[in-house]
User: Fold this.
Amino acid sequence: MPYQLDATVAAIRSIAPSLFRMTLHCPAIARSSLPGNFVHILTSKAGEPFWRRAYSVHDTDTTKGIFEIIFKVVGRGTSSLSRMKKGDKLNLLGPLGNSFTPPHKKNIVALVAGGVGVPPLHFFAKTLVQKKKLPPRNILFYVGMRTRREHFGLPELRGMRLNLFPATDDGSFGYRGFVTSCFEEAMQSTSLALDDLNV
Ligand SMILES: Cc1cc2nc3c(=O)[nH]c(=O)nc-3n(C[C@H](O)[C@H](O)[C@H](O)COP(=O)(O)OP(=O)(O)OC[C@H]3O[C@@H](n4cnc5c(N)ncnc54)[C@H](O)[C@@H]3O)c2cc1C
Assistant:
C-alpha cells in the first residue's frame, strides 16, 4: 500500500559532479519498498516544479527506518533536491511501481544498467544475495557510468561477492564503452545462450 507522508533528509552527499546520494528517514517506506519500486517526491515546497518526480529506491535499512535514492541534476526538480539539507522535510508518495520476478534457484541472472538506471537493480541484487535467493556467483551485474568517479555502489557490490562487470564511457574503469555493448560482447564470447539467462 502506498503512503503519502513527509520524510526527513537524513543525509545528502555529492558523489560526482551533478550526481547525488540522498538518505531519507521514513520507516513506513523503508519497510515496504521492494526492488524496482520508486517514490514520487514533491521536490519543492514553493510549488515549482508543480509535479512530483519519480526516484527509484536504491537501498533500504529497515532497522534504521531509512532508504536511499540516487539522482542526477538535470532540471528543476533535481536542482531543488540538490539544495536540500539534513533535517529538511520532503513529501513522498510511495512505494509505487512493480518489483521483479524472483529467479529460480539454478538461474543465472544478468542485470544490466547504467547511470541513474542502476538503483533498482542494485537493490534487486542486494535482496537476492541477502535473502539467499541465488548464490552470488550466479548474478552477473553489468554496471555502466560515464566515468570512474560515478561508480557509486562499488563497495557494497564488491561486498556482495557477485560477478561485477563495470563499464565507463571514457574507459577510466573497466570496459570502455556502453554497458550494453559490454554485455553483448560478453554474451557473444561465452557459451552461455541468452535463453539460459533471466533477462
Ligand atoms: C519510474 C522512474 C524512476 C526514476 N528513477 C530515477 C532515479 O533513480 N534517479 C534519477 O536521477 N532520475 C530518476 N527518474 C527520472 C526523474 O523522475 C526525473 O524525471 C529527473 O530527475 C528529471 O527531473 P528534473 O525535474 O530535474 O528535470 P526536468 O526539469 O523535468 O527536466 C527534464 C529534462 O528536460 C530538460 N528540460 C527542462 N526544461 C526544458 C526546456 N524548457 N526546454 C528543453 N529542455 C528542457 C532538462 O534539461 C532535462 O534534460 C525516474 C523516472 C521514473 C519514471
